[in-house]
Amino acid sequence: MKHGVKTTxxxxxxxxxxxxxxxxxxxxxxxxxxxxxxLSGKFHYYGKIKTEYNGESESSNVFSxxxxxxxxxxxxxxxxxxxxxxxxxxGTNTAFLRLSYxxxxxxxxxxxxxxxxxxxxxxxx
Length: 125
What we know:
Number of helices: 1
Largest sheet: 7 strands, antiparallel
Low-confidence stretches: none
Order of helices and strands: EEEEHEEE
Distance between the termini: 49 Å
Shape: elongated
């Protein structure tokens, strides 16, 4: 990088969902659908912005008031909603495909909310 600015943003978070769903089993098959809706808590453990310019770099902790300022620091806790549909093939090991969409209810930072689309494939055993 000869000219210009390179900015890297790194964040480590966990999400704990609390959903309500209803299982709709298709008669005489092992197939079931489960529409769901719920809330989730997002917990952000680490957030760093690194800016490089002309061979020099500067890093800031986005959750630190001393690095970002009182009005610009990011929130380390958030609330979000999600809704989706889970498709299951039931048996000894239940395979599933889950599609969901959700949005933040609270801001990560001033005027910054995230939207999330999820496609998950898995198996319960």
